[in-house]
Structure formats: structure tokens, C-alpha cells
Amino acid sequence: MFYREFKNNSVYITGVESFSLPHTLDCGQAFRWEELSDNCWHGVAYNKYLKIEKLLDGTIVLHNNPRGF
Known about the structure:
Elements lengths: L2 E5 L2 E5 L6 H5 L7 E5 L2 E6 L2 E7 L5 E4 L6
Antiparallel strand pairs: 1-2, 2-6, 3-4, 4-5, 5-6
């Protein structure tokens, strides 16, 4: 089971096992995603900018920039 928490215009997701950002976002079936650094990607989905980061403790953070880009 996973848990989510909303804070600072971001969503923090914990309790997810075996999730890989590179395997998911660079698989050839996901488009418009670019790797910024290890465990950090950004892209556009549904006309909204999103930055996804996986922290060292396994927490997945969905950052949304309210200004757009």
C-alpha cells in the first residue's frame, strides 16, 4: 500500500516498491520526458509541467511549478 501527502505544491508518495524512473520514463513508450539528473526527470503531461524525483529513501515526489515552466 502506498501513502501520499500534499505539501508545498508537491505530492510525496511513500510505500511504493520496485519503481524505477528510468525504466518507466525512458522505456520508448513514454514521450516528452527528459532526465535532469539521477532520479530526477521532467516533462509535460496534459499541458502541465511536472518534475518527478525519487529520493534516496524511495519517496517519489511530484513537483508542479505553478508558473508553468
